[in-house]
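Feature request disguised as a bug: please show the residue count (186) next to DUF421 domain-containing protein in the output. Example input:
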Amino acid sequence: MWQEYGLAWSDALRVVISAITLYVAVLLVIRVLGQRTLASMSSFDLAAVIALGAVIGRAILGNTPTLVAGLLGLVTLLTLQAVAGQVRRLGRGAQLVNSRPVLLMAGQDMLRDNLVRSHVVEEEVRAKLRLAGIRHPSEVACVVLESTGQISVLRRGQPIDPALLEGVAGADRMPQDLLWGGGRGI
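Example output, currently without the count:
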């Protein structure tokens, strides 16, 4: 059947295996480089992602792509994405696919070791503080790099419920006076 549309069974198998291999490779690279890799892109980052997509697409489809090969590659990638979405729902699966949130600032203290580990530079944090309307570091309760790669800023004023910081790497470094109930349970 596939051969009628310009795709031999061996080529169809190659498309599927290439798509799976490259999908897993991209996930591993993102896991190693950190969740910030694709979260907030500059125009340079966008150009790099487009170029990467072209390279990956060409590697999946081969030298002479056909419509059927393109559809097969697309279906394979979308299926892998759906499977990864289902794996995220499982406790252990979520740990494999998602990165753990990380505390970047505790009060007005920048946690430089967590910044380095998360591949986040101080300027990115300062930019997020400005976007959140922070005028002085004393207004900051905490800054968290979320598992999505986005950066959250929580202001001082009301104590933070420790449940909001559950599972956040470095939450134990939060000043107790910023936590509701004195931080019991983190």
